[in-house]
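Quick question: what would this complex look like in 3D?
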Amino acid sequence: MSQRGGNDLLLEGVRRLGAVAIFLVQLLLESVPALSRPRLLVHQIYNAGARSLIIIMLSGLFVGMVLGLQAFNLLQRFGSEEALGTAAALGLLKELSPVITALLFAGRAGTALTSEIGLMRATDQLTAMEIMAVDPLRHVAAPRFLGGVVAMPLLTAIFSLIGLYGAQLIGVQLMGVDKGVFWSQMQGSVGLRDVTEGMVKSVVFGIACSLIAVHEGYHAEPTAAGVGLATTRTVVASSVITLLLDYVLTAAFL
Amino acid sequence: MVVDVRGLHYAVGGRPIFAGLDVQVRRGRITAIMGPSGTGKTTLLKLITAQIPADRGEVSVFGEDLAALGRRGIYALRKRLGMLFQNGALLTDLDVFENVAFPVREHTDLPEALIYKLVLTKLQAVGLRGAAGLMPGELSGGMARRVALARAIVMDPELLIYDEPFVGLDPISLGVILRLIKHMNEALGITSIVVSHDVHQLATIAHDSYLLSGGRVAAAGPPAQLRARRASDSAAVRQFMTGSEDGPVAFHYPAPDYAAQLFAAEE
C-alpha cells in the first residue's frame, strides 16, 4: 500500500515537472515575439527589478556587514585579517549574492507575479484576452518571465556591490584593516571565473524563480484560496529549487 | 445562420451538462439563452467561443465547424466576435481608454491619431467618453460593463455575446445596458446572443429565445410566445417562466429527514 502511495507521489512529481518543462518551452517560444514589444518588457523589468531595489540594497548592506564582522573575527584567530577583502568578495560573488538575491526575489517579485497573474485568471482577464484573439501566454506570461530573467543578474550585481561596501565599512572603518590591503588583496585573488560563477548562478536562478512564479500564477485555481496557495507555493518551490541548483552549480564550477 | 449547435453533448466529471442540445442563432437577431442557474448557459458560451471542445455533436460559428479549426483558425474566428463578461473583465493595469484601445493595438497598425478617434467614438456610444482617464478600480459595476461593451465593439464584430449582462445592476444602469444591447443590434446590425435568467428583461429585447433545462432545449421561440403558452409546456418551463418555488427544480437541496436530523443531534 505504502509502496503504491510512494509510486503515486513519484508519478505526480514527474507529471508536474513535465508540465513545468512544457510551460518553459511554450514561454521560450513566445518570448521571441514578446521581444518585439520592448515597452511591455521594460515595464516588467521595472516591476521585477526596480521595485525590488530597496530590499536588495538594504539586505546587501546588512549581509556585507555581517560577513565583514564574522570573517574578520575568524581571520583574526589565524592572524590573517588582511585577507578580509578576498574572503568577503569570494563569499559574496560566488554564493551569498546570487542565493540571497534569488530568495528575496522569490519573496518580493515572485509572489507579486504569481498573485497578479492568478488574479487576472480569477477575474476573467486572461479569458477576455483569449476571446479578443490575444494569446495571454505571449502578452502576459512571456514578458513577465523575461523581465524576471533580466532583472535577477542586475539585482545580484547590485547586491554584491553594496555587500562589498558593507564588508569594507565594518572591516576597514570599524575594525581597522588597512584600506589599501583590503582592496588590493581582493583585486589580486578574485578572478573573472569567480564573477562568472556568480553571474551564471544568478541567470539560472532568474530563469527558475521567474518560471515558477509565472507558472504558479498562470495555473492557479481561480479563487481567493487558490491564488493564496499558488503564492505560497511560489515562495516554497523557488527557495528549495534555488538552494538545490546552488549546490549543483557550485559542484559544476569546482 | 451565425451560430449552429447540433446534437451537442458535453459532460464535466461524468456529469452530463448537455445531452443532444440544438441551438440556432440567426443573423441580425438578438437571441436569448435562458435557464435556471446550473443549466450550463455559461458553458454553452464557452463552447461557442471555442474555449472548451464539445464531447460530441457539432458547433459551427460563421459556418465553420469549431472542431475542425486549429488554434490559428480559432483566433481568426474570434476576431469576428465580441464578448461581454459578467464582471467586465477589464484589464486592471490599463485605464479605460487603453482597455478599449487594447484589441486595436494588438490586431492593427493604425496610427495613434486614428486609434484615439476610434476609441473616443466607441466610448461616446456607451456614454463614457468623459471616463477615458479613469482606472477600472474607479468604475461602478454598470460603468465597467459599459466600458467592456465599448471594448467588445471596437473591432466592429459581427457577433456580440453577452454573459449575464443584467446581474447586480441598479434600475438606471439596467435600462442603459438594455438600450445599448438593442442599439448595437438595430443601428450596427450586430447579431447578439444574450445569456441571462432575467425573463422579463429579455422579453423586451430578444427576437428569439431558448430555455435550457436538463441538458436540452425545453422550449424555443419568441420570448412573448414562451410566456403565453405556459399551459402547454412542461412543468420545468412553467416553473422557470413564473418563478415559482414549487416544481421540478426543488427549493431544498436533497437532505435527510428534517425532524430525524434535528432529534439525532440531541441524542
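Answer marked as accepted. Chain A has a mean pLDDT of 93.
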